[in-house]
Write a structure and sequence with these properties.
The chain has about 625 residues and is of the alpha+beta class. It has helices at about 5-15, 45-50, 95-110, 135-145, 160-165, 250-260, 270-280, 290-310, 320-340, 345-360, 370-395, 405-415, 420-425, 435-455, 465-485, 515-530, 540-545; strands at about 20, 60-65, 85-90, 120-125, 155-160, 165, 180-190, 220-230, 235-250, 400, 430, 490-495, 500-505, 535-540, 560-565, 585, 600-610, 615-620.
Length: about 625
């Protein structure tokens, strides 16, 4: 079964059950200072899980492109990837467990044709604050009974603590910041070790393990989260006013299960990339463990890099740009481990184009000149690191053993993450003092955390009063830049905390001090005018027609939420002209009701973010 078939079947399955399809959000989130990347399908939907009305309704379905930087170290096995597609369906206060669990069981067994005998499930075992999920246990028992399986707890149904069966963006309850939604979940695992009963051909036949064992026999393919709690300021959990269902299932893993192959890199979402790497290296995937792991890292990291670059991100030394650079550099090191006579940058280009072809018509237009031109960004970064790598390798040769201090110096001087130094040293048969490196690195981390504490203070800052004010000021700032300096200026990213706002905009030169002063004065003028802030839902086409600004790289549903500042006259919002408001943007909020509550606006500084992108910092007082 092709991945496109799995994706289509899932979307159509839930659309036939009253769900509205919504587009994937960008993997580089806007207006969310709590995270660098979109790492799950629920992340863009947090306001709606907390009770805000979604323009598309209370039943939603999508396939969300996602990236998890915490999985970088795990890439190399048969199932972990940093970039993935998360198939998702949501109930925003509508249906709950009695509908969700039977539906996902039906989808897996009927639509994908998975043998129910090879499906195992887990539920939350409970803790002091939330009881064991006995309701899900009983639902699963009945579902299995209907297909002739006696599902006993501990044999077919497993209970686990919050570390395994509780989901929030931050992890188990004690790690959740105030305001964060979360809840117990129920996961479905596919057993690759049983094929019509245990037999000798199974790599895992006869092993004693359980669904959350890491041996590779079981693969999680579906997770129904019952998002019904919110962390409070006093550390307790409070039930939300609405009980939500937040389902997530990795497309790559579902496809692997549908094709009865435990290696996601054999699926059609990776096969063309692996083929390009095989041609470059002159080696066959799957024949050598170390080489296979290297191919997996290259395939995953460059796929993730392709998506980031296509959303306008450039390799850099800070935040998302640093993660992008780290992915590319690790892939280059793995290319060297594979050998091969080809030029590394040419392999990078080949993988970039292969990713484009895999997702052509889904996320990319692979034949567009704009897409193919962006391959040069990846090639240039590979060439740049090749020079750095050569210098770093020369430095490594000077040392019989790599001390922690040397490894940290390589990190600071050459941008070598620990794993690169470790892998390069092992290639040369050199010893690596990891403990000493970690000691040095932790000193650096402590300093970084101190700086980051100010940057990300407040957790989900876009829901606090201070951040809400800065969010509205952000809209005023963008409109002022367009009106006073260049109407073609577009937002390329933002980060808003309780202390300050940051906006990245497309502009190919430094703003002058005079320009910034005029912009600052205009924002303060609009604050003094105490303009009304109006939220309206309207068809996407109508929002585009009235000139509402869009988030860079975002796709939108048929009905959208638009926030308008300074709307005048008695016309309906979807019927106004651009001159009848000061600012209008596609946005989910939150915002103040009137600009007069914002205070005094000050631009703190501006600098370059990346090529053709300027970054402005501002505050309210």
């Amino acid at each position: 079964m092709k991945s496109s078939d799995v994706r289509k079947k899932f979307i159509e399955f839930y659309k036939s059950r009253g769900h509205a399809e919504i587009p994937s959000a960008p993997i580089i989130p806007l207006n969310d200072p709590s995270t660098l990347f979109t790492s799950s399908g629920m992340q863009p939907l947090i306001p709606y899980l907390l009770g805000e009305h979604h323009p598309a309704g209370v039943r939603l379905v999508d396939s969300q492109k996602s990236f998890r930087s915490q999985d970088i170290e795990e890439v190399g096995d048969n199932r972990h990837t940093t970039f993935f597609e998360m198939l998702g369906n949501w109930s925003l206060g509508d249906y709950f467990k009695n509908e969700q669990l039977p539906w996902i069981f039906e989808f897996l067994t009927k639509e994908l044709g998975l043998d129910p005998k090879r499906l195992y499930v887990s539920v939350f075992e409970g803790n002091d604050a939330v009881p064991m999920d006995t309701e899900s246990i009983e639902i699963w028992k009945k579902l299995y009974k209907d297909v002739g399986i006696d599902a006993k707890v501990g044999e077919r149904i497993f209970t686990y603590p919050a570390k395994k069966n509780w989901w929030s963006r931050s992890g188990e309850p004690e790690k959740m910041p105030p305001g964060e939604p979360g809840g117990p979940d129920s996961e479905v695992f596919f057993d690759f070790g049983i094929q019509l009963g245990l037999h000798e051909k199974s790599a895992f036949a006869g092993e004693v393990c359980h669904p959350n064992c890491d041996c590779g026999r079981f693969m999680e393919i579906a997770n129904s989260v019952f998002m019904q709690y919110q962390k409070q300021e006093d550390g307790t959990l409070k039930e939300l006013s609405q009980k939500n269902v937040d389902f997530g299932g990795g497309l790559e893993r579902m496809n692997a299960a549908a094709n009865d192959n435990p290696d996601v890199f054999y699926t059609d979402l990776f096969a063309p990339i692996i083929a390009a790497i095989e041609q470059f290296a002159g080696k066959k995937y799957g024949t050598d463990t170390r080489e296979t792991q290297a191919m997996r890292v290259i395939a995953d990291h460059l796929k993730a890099a392709t998506f980031m670059i296509c959303e306008g991100l450039y390799p850099a030394n800070k935040q998302q740009g640093y993660i992008l650079r780290r992915l590319i550099r690790r892939a280059v090191v793995k290319m060297h481990q594979l050998g091969g006579a080809g030029v590394k940058s040419e392999l990078g280009k080949a993988v970039f184009l292969a990713v484009g072809n895999i997702y052509d018509g889904v996320y990319f237009s692979a034949t567009d000149a704009e897409f193919t031109q962006k391959a040069a960004i990846l090639s240039e970064e590979i060439l740049r690191f090749e020079k750095v790598l050569k210098t770093g390798m020369a430095e490594l040769k000077k040392h019989e053993s790599i001390t922690g201090t040397v490894a940290f110096d390589l990190l600071q001087s050459y941008g070598f993450p620990w794993e690169l130094t470790y892998e390069l040293a092992l290639d040369r048969g050199q010893e690596v003092d990891r403990d000493e490196f970690l000691k040095e690195f932790r000193k650096h981390q402590d300093l970084s955390r101190t700086a980051a504490a100010g940057m990300f203070k407040g957790g989900l800052a876009d829901h606090s009063e201070a951040t809400t004010k800065l969010h509205t000021a952000h809209h005023l700032l963008l409109a002022s830049l367009q009106k006073l300096i260049d109407p073609t200026i577009k937002q390329r990213g933002s980060n808003i905390t309780a202390e300050r706002l940051r906006i990245d905009v497309s502009f190919n030169r430094k703003f002058t001090a005079e320009e910034l002063k005029k912009v600052e004065d205009l924002v303060n003028e609009k604050i003094k005018e105490n303009l009304k802030v109006t939220r309206a839902e309207m068809p996407r086409e109508a929002a585009e027609k009235i000139g509402a600004q869009m988030e860079f790289g975002a796709k939108y549903p048929d009905r959208v939420s638009v926030y308008m500042v300074g709307l005048t006259g008695d016309k309906a919002p979807e019927a106004v002209a651009p001159g009848e408001y000061f600012s209008a943007e596609f946005c989910g909020g939150p915002h103040v009701a009137f600009t007069g509550t914002l205070g005094h606006f000050t631009i703190q500084k501006e600098d370059a973010s990346s090529a053709g992108v300027r970054r402005i910092y501002a505050k309210l007082s």
